[in-house]
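Category: protein sequence paired with discrete backbone structure
Discipline: computational structural biology
Format: plain text, a pair of labelled lines
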Amino acid sequence: MGSYYDNTSNCGSHGFRLSNRAYTNIDVPESLGAVPGTTTAAAIDPQGDIVGNYTDSSFVFHGFLLSHSTFSAIPDIPAPGASTFPLGMNPQGDIVGAAFSVTPCCGFLLSHGTVSIIDVPGSSLTVPYGIDPQGDIVGFYQDSNGNQHGFLIRQN
């Protein structure tokens, strides 16, 4: 699972999955109308479901879930002009990632259809990028001096 750039067309990047020595392209249909359109595969769970992002014709990034050959949209994070970047997923289907906009970035957790914002207090940037089967979340944040630090949010 990953992404590659296509210099032969106006598509920008494509996601892909490598399974049993066979490559499968991953292109969210809505990204194909954008110039350049992009699809980026970010994470895969043990069932083979893939999350990532794509650009639409307005060059806004949106999240997607690819499950059993079907694309589903991940809800956009409610921030003005935000682009949504899913970065990690656990076997239970919980998804973490970040939203970027003209305002500081915040992280998110999408669990059972509900979006929760993850924002380290006092940080200018919070990016969760992994979630394990128990729901523990890892990522990094940037403090007011521009220094990056890791974080772990444990579920009890």
Observations:
- Residues 1-74 form one domain.
- The chain has no helices and 14 strands.
- The chain has a mean pLDDT of 85.
- The longest strand covers residues 12-19.
